[in-house]
Amino acid sequence: MGDAEHVTGVGRGVVVALAMLLVGTLAQCAQPMGDASAPQGASGSSGAAPGLPISSPAGPSAPPVATTLAAVQQRTVAPRPAPRPTPTTPAKPRPALWEVARVVDGDTIHVTRGGDLVKVRLIGIDSPERDECGFDASAASLRRIIGGREVRLLTGARTSQDQYGRLLRYVEVAGTDVGLAQIKSGYAVARFDSRDGYGGHTREAEYIAADRASPDRGWLCATPVPVRPQADWPLAGDEHPCPREQPIKGNESSMIAHSPGQQSYLVTNPEQCFATLSDAVAAGFRPAKR
């Protein structure tokens, strides 16, 4: 019996030891696990409040979204403003076209448009009148320039009409100044006094220059009127007399020669004086009409 009891006591000791080992293992398993994300060596009794996220390691933080957008806007190059359109002056409408209905003489025409008939006196020129030497040739010259064509009427005189009710206009055909063309042909002369109601005009200088450079065909066929000797000289009322031996007054402004007894003789201030009207015509002057 002694050996059996000894074996039994040893077995009990082994069982007790195993039981204690099991209890210790269970006790360890029952303890709460530490935060696996805590850095190695950190104490389990950290002062961080439970439930709050643990701060990441110190380092530069990303800027707020609003700050980033503002910086991008500052760096963005502002677009150049669109160029302003240059103001332009609207083109003036071109004068209407008129059909030539009749050539009256070398400086007067009748035109029609839309059933309206208008009489037009060309500004700045003068041509022989009916029954005067050169009338037919001057009218024929104007017909060659504008016959069967359409013309444009342009203003330029100080008044719109003359004392006969005719429109005072420059006349152009296909861009050509008809009055200037008549002067250059030699069948009209520059006219810029006030007897036709317009006085000076805007193309006066050009017309005068053309007149002086052109042959005067319109009045070359005229027969000079002989000047009768005057008993009293100078004539009464003549403020600008010529010598008795040279009574013909030549007005260089109009290139008209005035004889004693004519309408404008006493008031004409001559630049040249001639013995005969033939001498004046030879010098480029034309006889006064009245």
TrEMBL record:
Coiled-coil stretches noted in the UniProt entry, renumbered to this chain: none
Database matches in Pfam families: SNase
Chain residue ranges for the region called Disordered: 32-94
InterPro entries: SNase_OB-fold_sf, Staphylococal_nuclease_OB-fold, Thermonucl_AS
Gene3D superfamilies recorded: 2.40.50.90
Biased composition (Low complexity): 36-59
Annotated transmembrane regions: none
Feature: compositional bias, Pro residues: 80-93
Listed GO MF terms: nuclease activity; nucleic acid binding
TNase-like domain segment(s): 94-214
Full protein name: Nuclease (SNase domain-containing protein)
Organism: Intrasporangium calvum (strain ATCC 23552 / DSM 43043 / JCM 3097 / NBRC 12989 / NCIMB 10167 / NRRL B-3866 / 7 KIP)
